[in-house]
Amino acid sequence: MINFTVPVPVRKLVDRFKDMADPHQWAQLASMFVYFLTGTGSLCDFVRKNPWSPSVSSLSRFIQEFDGNRALRRMRGRVLRRYVKKYGSLNPNNFVFAVDDTNNPKFGKSYRAGSWYSSKGICHGQRIVVLALVDIVNDVAIPLSFRIATKTDHPDYQPCYDFVLEQLNEVKNEGFATLTVVFDSWFDSSEFIADVAALGFEVTWEAKASRTVKTSISPWSHWKKIGKTFTKVKRFRARNRMEAAAVKRREKRAPCVAQLRLFFKKLERRVNCIACYSRRNGKNAFAYWASTDLMLTAIQIWEMGRARWRIEKLFRELKQHLSFGRLPSGSREATELSICLPFIVYCVLAIGARVMGEAGRCNDRGYRTQYTYRSHAQVNNHGSGEVSFRSVTDSFPCKDLQKSC
User: Fold this and answer.
1) Alpha carbon of 395 to those of 161, 238, 318, 319, 399: distances in Å?
2) Rounded Cα gap, residues 98 and 362, in angstroms
3) Under a CB-based contact definition with an 8 Å cutoff, are residues 103 and 319 in contact?
4) pLDDT digits 0-9 by tens, 136-165
């Protein structure tokens, strides 16, 4: 008879969190990690494909009891310790905090589900606000915390801005450095920027093109649209570490930027602002970025803006390969588990040994990993029939991966 066992690397990962569940629920905890690792769509499908897994009803009961936020806090502590051990501290030139929200489509009665506006139209489901640590050198975003937004008619309504302030306070109290916080134009609010700066963080954000600014506080200086202030400012190419591969190969030109120090309306401080153009003689800028740090150069501000895009890639990889939010969840516990466990698995996949302490081989980017997306279970030709995971990815940036666990 063939014996099916949990893969060895999964057992090592689960053992770090085994004290968070009852001893007799170890198999359920391991099953949930493998569920997200393999990108399975439903519990029924997962149980059919993994003979060693407990039943669907047993997994459902476990989901209602597991504290996902506690596991996420433990992961944050491990990430911080490993980075501090390697680099001594988090260098503000190589690390930033990125904030963004993502839609998690849900149908039926789900925890805090509603209809939200998105870039693709109206989406029914949950809106999740995520705080991530972006490692600029290794080009990876580490999810640290999340909040599930509420609609205005919800009895526990709280603005998304307040959620971000809570998350920043949380990571600050846990020992993370006060790095620069980067976000897109959806968070472009003078009150919110002032509140983040009051916590001791520098802020870099994408300003809306409708912003009104002026170059000085003199009463003879008039307010005007941000685009009109850069019409006669000298522009130069902005090459940095976060550019696309085509730009690095010189197949495509880097954007041109122009820099000014401006006063934004309703923001009682001077900010460092740049306008980004596709061409040196372009008429209209495609983006405006501003920073509360007046010492930053235009290239540094543009680099931080490019680093923010890493959190968008994080959402894509989580949703396409790690079943992020796809677990049917009607309760708060199930919803938190469907978010926290993919975050933990992603950290192991993305930066394995360097952050999580696993053994693995270095890839061409210089960091280690031993797991990958699109991993699938296969029965070995060995007599034991142990289930192993084989790396079959072609989209993840880590190319030098172990062939099997």
Assistant:
1) 34, 28, 13, 14, 9
2) 26
3) no
4) 888 889 999 998 888 777 777 888 899 999
